[in-house]
Amino acid sequence: MTIHATSHHRRMLATLAAVLSVGLLAACTPSSESGPTAAPAQAFGLPSGVRQATSVPSDVPNTPALRRNVAIDTCASSDGGWKAVGTAKNPTKADVTYTISIFFTTDKGTVIGTGKTKVTVSAGATREWTVSSRLTPAPDTRCILRGVG
Predict the structure, then answer these.
(1) 81-89 and 142-148 strand pairing
(2) Are 137 and 105 in contact (CB under 8 A)?
(3) pLDDT of residue 2
(4) Contact residues for 37 (Cβ-Cβ < 8 A; gap 6+)
(5) Cα(149)–Cα(144) distance, integer angstroms
(6) Phi/psi of residue 21, nearest 5 degrees
(7) CB–CB of 143/114 below 8 Å?
(8) pLDDT at site 46
(9) What is the C-alpha to C-alpha distance for residues 28 and 128, in angstroms, rounded to an integer?
(10) Domains of the chain (ranges, CATH numbers)
(11) What is the distance between the alpha carbons of residues 142 and 114, in angstroms, rounded to a whole number?
């Protein structure tokens, strides 16, 4: 038995295919409206309660010549999170302003918090700085000097 499709049937099938395609594409297209972003689920391998950072800067100022003048002296817990405390020295004859960026990570390198500060150091002087982040610390939280600009 042979079935012959009429031109009417072909047009109906083509229209149905077009409507279904548009519907499927609309379901896959993200909304242009901005709204709150849900916190990620527990990342694999993180201790209970520890969350991966949801907003990690990718464009961090980092100048090697400035970086050698900045050091982390302490990496420890603080009220509601973790903090890095360090020193910035200025070997030049003019004031220098450093932008210091710190990533707080697990011992495996997962970023669980970030922070930055600006500190101005007078010519020939050394000055203390602090960067803190609100987070649930991992058992072995680390402070990483991500950049100095």
Answers:
(1) unpaired
(2) no
(3) 52
(4) 54
(5) 15
(6) -65, -45
(7) no
(8) 82
(9) 51
(10) 64-148 (2.60.40.10)
(11) 11
What is the per-residue pLDDT for 47?
Answer: 79
- Please give the backbone phi and psi of residue 67, each rounded to the nearest 5 degrees, phi first: -60, -35
Closest CA to 74 of 112, 120, 131, 117: 131
End-to-end CA distance of the chain: 79
Instruction: Give dist(CA 81, CA 57) in Å, integer.
Output: 19
Residue 24 has pLDDT above 80, yes or no: no
Contact 47, 138 (CB under 8 A): yes
Q: Taking Cα atoms as reference points, which of 75, 85, 78 lies closest to residue 105?
A: 75
The DSSP symbol for 138 reads -
The SS3 assignment for 13 reads helix
Strands (E), 4-140: 70-78, 81-89, 96-105, 111-121, 126-134
Structure-model confidence comparison of residues 29 and 90, the more confident one: 90
Q: Nearest 5°: phi and psi at 10?
A: -65, -45
